[in-house]
Design a protein that fits this description.
This protein is of the alpha+beta class. The protein has 8 helices and 11 strands. The mean pLDDT is about 95.
């Protein structure tokens, strides 16, 4: 018996099984420093202990997407090592801050399976939960992945497609314990805009851009211990190019959104998302946001803003996402629907 693991193929998944992912990861100030070096991230709450303390928190939590990337990275050897593409996200909830020194683990439950018509691949839906060292959930989300079959002739399972919520409702968003914005310092945060300054339908062009470098994306993907072959092995794709990890594009877009959304301090919900087209080294990533909704939370002074965050490479200067057939335009890289917290 071979001692090495080639990764799971579509026919290896069973509906309802729970996969306990290796390896626990203790995260700290090193991850924060590297994250801020890799992305132009400068949200005040995640950058400064004193700012976080003025908002009722004991210290600055690690960036929300550090938690996401770490939890996601644990799942890759079991879920997407043999993936063709990561297709989407839903029902994402950030349930507790991750503090320096926390140890994160990940588990995934298989909640859907459907073979594709080609017979060569299938789609696997999983609900992943990340927990800290106390076993407390810090993050939960659903994603679905197109995975290769080992044997195209293997029988297809009975298709099960989960019924997923269109969005996380505001009453299901978790405001971190102690968080308050009654003494919020808008000058130190970087912008004066409150929740009431945003209106549904408004589009914010975040102005700045970042050109993706091969070395940076590979360093980032290794940092999150993401082992998917398409990100490292240039022979794994017919075009001989390494695919940029989709989470790298998410973090770039989130960091770019500071210009216009500096007070969107914490991500608390991930309603949906699509990596619309592949990103490669040399692409220049730009971002804009569309305001979808504004809501109150159960904490006075803390509001929730629902945003569509879009990342695009060089293309038309308008904000169109799809063509007349409903297909994403070729320059669109990311279409992400999320909830953030900001002062009322």
């Amino acid at each position: 018996m071979s001692k090495t693991d080639p990764g799971r193929f579509f026919e290896d998944y069973r509906l309802g099984e729970v996969i306990r992912h290796a390896v626990p990861r203790t995260v700290g100030q090193g991850e924060r420093a590297l994250y801020h070096a890799l992305y132009p991230a400068r949200g005040a709450l995640h950058s400064s202990d004193t700012f976080a303390q003025s908002c009722g928190l004991p210290v600055a939590p690690l960036d929300d997407l550090i938690a996401f990337h770490t939890v996601f990275g644990k799942t890759v050897p079991d879920i997407s090592l043999n993936a063709v593409a990561n297709l989407g996200y839903a029902e994402g909830r950030f349930l507790a801050p991750v503090w320096p020194g926390d140890t994160l683990t990940s588990d995934s439950e298989v909640i859907g399976l459907k073979q594709n018509s080609s017979g060569k691949t299938g789609v696997v839906w999983v609900r992943t939960t990340g927990r800290n060292q106390q076993g407390r959930p810090v993050l939960s989300y659903v994603r679905w992945v197109m995975v290769r079959k080992r044997d195209p002739e293997a029988p297809a399972p009975e298709p099960v497609v989960p019924d997923l919520a269109e969005s996380v409702t505001p009453d299901h968003l978790t405001v971190p314990e102690g968080l308050r914005f009654d003494g919020y310092d808008f000058d130190r945060a970087g912008e004066p805009h409150r929740l009431g300054d945003y209106a549904p339908g408004e589009i914010i062009d975040h102005v700045d851009a970042v050109t993706v470098e091969e070395a940076e994306h590979m360093m980032a993907t290794r940092l999150w211990q993401n082992t998917a072959r398409v990100h490292f092995d240039a022979t794994h794709r017919e075009d001989g190019r390494r695919l940029i990890y989709g989470g790298h594009v998410i973090s770039l877009a989130r960091a770019l959104s500071f210009n216009g959304l500096a007070n969107a301090q914490m991500i608390v919900g991930l309603n949906g998302g699509a990596h619309a087209n592949p990103c490669f080294a040399g692409d220049t990533v730009r971002a804009w946001s569309e305001v979808l909704d504004c809501a109150e939370t159960n904490v006075p002074g803390v509001g929730a803003l629902r945003l569509r965050l879009v990342a695009a490479k060089d293309g038309p200067g308008d904000y169109a996402l799809k063509d007349d057939t409903g297909k994403y335009l070729p320059h669109i890289l990311l279409d992400l629907d999320l909830w953030v917290l900001m002062p009322v």
